[in-house]
Amino acid sequence: MPLLVIDNLYTEIEGKKILSGVSLAIGQGEAHFLMGPNGSGKTTLASALMGSPRVNVTAGSILFDGEEISAWLPEARAHKGMYLWFQHPAEVAGVGLMDFLRSAVAARGGAPQPQEKFRGELVALAEKLRMPTALLDRNLNEGFSGGEKKRSELLQFSVLKPRLAILDECDSGLDVDGLHAAAAALDEFRQGGGTLLVITHYGTMREYLHPDAVHIMMQGKIAHSGGEELIPAVERDGFAQFETA
Amino acid sequence: MVKLLSTTPEIIPAWERPDPERWIARTGKGISKRIVEEISRLKGEPDWMREKRLAAFKFFEAKKMPTWGADLSGLNFDDITFFIRPDAKQFENWDEVPADIRRVYDNLGIPQAEQKFLAGLVGQYESEGFYAKIKEKWERQGVIFTDTDTAVKKYPDIVREYFMTRCVPIADHKFAALHGAVWSGGSFVYIPKGVKVDMPLQTYFRMNAAQSGQFEHTLIIADEGSSVHYIESCTAPKYSTDSLHSAVVEIFVKKGASVRYTTIQNWSKNVYNLNTKRALVEEDGKIEWVGGSLGSKATMLYPASILMGRGAHARHLNIALAGPGQWKDTGAKVIHGAPHTSSRVISKSISLGGGRSSYRGLLKIAKGATGAKAHVQCDALLLDEHSQSDTYPYMEVYEDDVSIMHEATVNRVTDEQLFYLRSRGLTEDQALDLILAGFLDPISRELPLDYAIELNRFIRLEMTGSVG
Predict the structure, then answer these.
(1) Which has the higher per-residue pLDDT, B27 or B189?
(2) Are A92 and B417 a contacting pair at CB < 8 A?
(3) Residue of chain B with shortest Cα separation from A51
(4) What share of chain B is helix, strand, coil (3-state, %, to 5)?
(5) Interface membership of B435 toward A (CB under 8 Å)
(6) B274 by DSSP, 3-state: which?
(7) Which of A42, B73, B177, B182 qualifies as a cystine partner to B59, CB 3.0-4.6 A?
């Protein structure tokens, strides 16, 4: 059975229908790309998968590792191994990035680590990800530049070691070095059996990740699915070619 | 960072439950000249104090209710009993304290704390003190720590010189005048020259009877070169009717002396808490105010530091919590009246469940206070959409050669933030704990550990009641 099975999912946000019958299945260790025009519902799908209280699931189901999770709290989904890389991560004043990550590791049942040891590991990881270590002592995403926020998401992803990562535009706003670092980390993740759902506007990530499948989302549902070859088609002719009558 | 405790507390905390009423004398409801005289008569006071009360009452009658700050429209003086004498004598030994009063203090852990951490303790039940004890070591060095009623009789010369004269005069404002007329209880502290009391002195006020008023008067005199840390805590049970607490604290910090005044206020949520606290600080003296305002319906409190001597220093740390139905109008006043005086104000407020907190502060630098340095920082945290926070900083600067900094921040905890933190595996409670601990960190670090944990526990308790 695939790791993630989305079946005929309908959602609303503040009474407004956003997703209308999304179905998608991703096998363990696979990387799927999700593309589509602005407003087609990609971010809503990501939020629904992670359990955002804003998104109301009105019909359909989400199976993760064989369990129906669509009524689960976000933290329960995280504990189960899901991770959402936010397109626009929240800024949290007063909460240090490092303190936060230590709490998150502990909340997921990890052994509480002495602060100095945790710090040492985090600094090493940040360096590997080419992230300025000064960010570790700043408040979580507060005043971070666009690229720094992406690096914060990447660092959290690397520390929390999920089984399924949903990446919502992880590539936009990253400089070349950042993109390389992210791609290397994601590739390593996949080599280790990790599963990816990559929401992207660009084909750049394809060169690093070579997706097993590409899905085109239009007006709240999957309009078309295919292989890697869909990406150049999108880049050449846009999304109009997938419009259903 | 201090971790907040996540244990689920009982629904009605022990200090909000009324204890059996225990009193032998009380005035009728409301306030009049006759009642003021009655209080003085019951206390067997000297004439000068009775006259002071009557003069204060005249000012009280003449002055109008304040129309700024917290909403006081529900406060009706006619419904309040202004003086209740507890049915207990003065004790120096907990074994002699009547069992029911003793139980109240036992439940709050007071006698145990006295044993371990304190240089002395005064306990007050309703309007008057019932317990006063200072460890022999300090008594031998001339430290005086007793309730203020006793001080009027035992140390009339000192009290007469300092009591509501030049620090908080009876004509200061309406509630100071009311206090002057009906004050009862409170603590009297005198630290002789050069004596450094290295353990805190603590007073614990309990207002138990319904619809009563508590008007304790605390007078602290730290003579030249001395130092002391004084702690005050207050609680009252929850009744459906409103009560009034209007205290006055006067602190005299003499040349080179140092006083730390710490208070945790956790009155139940139908108490109007309207206090006046002020310190006169002489050359090279230091005053430090540490305050946690957790309970009450409405609080108006702006501890004031008057820096009168060269090099005097004031530090104000304040945390106010405004939950459902609460309005906290708190802040700090610092008056730099001499050269090279310095002050630092850190004020943090948390509003939730529709509560409102206001920071109201005055910073005044008088002509001639050259080289004065002042730093004011006030931060507000709003835990939801319905709560409110506002800031009223007043500044009067009459000297050029000064350094002033004012910082203010307001942060609202958003659903996006909570979802973000939860998506990483934290529960909503853990996420709020983290945000709160982070917000309070700069101030909790300044507190003794026990105190910080206690404060966090109170905040936690408030939040469990109104969040999620």
Answers:
(1) B189
(2) yes
(3) B423
(4) 25, 35, 35
(5) yes
(6) strand
(7) B177
- Span B274-325, pLDDT tens digits: 999 999 999 999 999 998 888 889 999 999 999 999 999 999 999 898 988 9
CATH value of A4-94+162-242 in 3.50.50.60, 3.10.450.50, 3.40.50.300, 2.60.40.10:
3.40.50.300
Instruction: State how far the Cα of A238 lies from the Cα of A55, in Å rounded to an integer.
Output: 28
Say how far apart CA B307 and CA B343 lie, in whole Å: 9
Using an 8 Å CB-CB cutoff, list residues of chain A that contact chain B. Answer: 50-54, 73-75, 77-79, 83-84, 86, 89-96, 99-100, 103-104, 107-108, 139, 156, 160
What phi and psi, each to the nearest 5 degrees, are found at residue B182? Answer: -120, 10
**H-state helical runs in B63-196:** 99-107, 110-117, 136-140, 148-154, 156-162, 174-182
d(CA A149, CA A127): 16
Concatenated DSSP letters of A201-212: SSSHHHHHH--S
End-to-end CA distance of chain A: 33
Residue A121: is its pLDDT beyond 70? yes
Angle of the B428-444 helix axis to the B449-466 helix axis, nearest 10: 140
Residue B417 DSSP code = H
> Measuring CA to CA, how many Å separate B110 from each of A105, A144, B102, B123, B187?
38, 48, 10, 9, 16
Indicate the pTM of the whole model. 0.82
Considering only CA atoms, which of B246, B265, B203 is closest in space to residue B228? B203
